[in-house]
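agent> call fold_tool(seq_1)
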Amino acid sequence: MESNAIIYIKNMVCRRCIIIVTQIFQKHGTEPLDVQLGKVTLSKPISKKELEPIQQELENCGFEVIDDKRTRIIEQIRTAVIQYVHYNDAPKKKNLSDYISSQCKREYSLLSKLFAETNGITIEKYYIAQKIERVKELLIYGELSISEIADKLHYSSSAHLSTQFRSVTGLSPTQFKQLKNPQLKPLDEV
């Protein structure tokens, strides 16, 4: 398969995004072979003319086709972190740097430097921000205790979770839980 049969898409952050992107391609007569967060694989390349209406509809839904190599790598890193934090409930067998390297198929030090230069924060700080959003989400659901959330997100202890949560939000998890109208950020805005 030629490499241009892969289309990279920015702002895909959840399973619903996969469904929406799949439907947009199908609506325009292009059946994707595979759709993952940040990437659509087609059986054959499509022309710019065929891509234009798809691209327009993607943009109307808040997505963006990425054609710049640097931006594509940054988006792969963001997607890998989001998958690692939000969609991977299995026990962590790989540390974050190994996971990102395997997902992006590049050396972590290169990825880390590029991410920091482009976004002004390190991958680790971005990872912590994503984890805190996940903690907020789980606190709002109210189904798990702080200890269970700490375990689920692989914190060394609930005290570590609480300390990190307070340093990022200014509130303890308990104070956040007691807010009348707690707010979550969309994952693509974290």
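agent> call fold_tool(seq_2)
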Amino acid sequence: MPIRAAVSALLLTAVALFPAYAQDSKEAAKAVTNEDGKYFDADGTPTFNIKEDGTVDWYTFSGYRRYHSDCHVCHGPDGVGSTYAPALAQSLKDMDYGTFIAIVAGGRQNLSAGKESVMPAFGDNKNVYCYIDDLYIYLRARAVGDLPRGRPPKREDKPAAATEAERACMEG
């Protein structure tokens, strides 16, 4: 179990070392533009769009699927954390997009007080990195409280741009 504790400590350290400049809020996460089915906030950061009837955009749904394929083993279902790794739905309240990308791609290692903490790098794992925006979008929706736990009941259709980006990333 030392690796579990190491991963948990590492991610907590990463969040402490790389905090966002301001906490994410529902207002900051609000979608203001849509480019080929992908939503962005006022700062141009990828974000989610959830309709009043609970329909989520494709990228939020894809993020849910990818998270539960690759991330939930350590970080628990729906980003709520585990004894192995912290709650990403909580961490993203204080973590900006760039920090998220850097940690997922490059991983983190922390050596302090005789302990070693490790978050593995996923920058070479196309099943994670090709969907990194999707993961961020899903966790951002969870972090601001706009997406409840569980599989989203409805989703928008997959945009052609998502299909093309996925193909290009997987082949590249």
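agent> summarizing second result for user.
The chain has one domain: 2-171. The beta strands are 33-35, 38-40, 46-47, 55-56, 108-112, 115-119, 154-155.
agent> awaiting next instruction.
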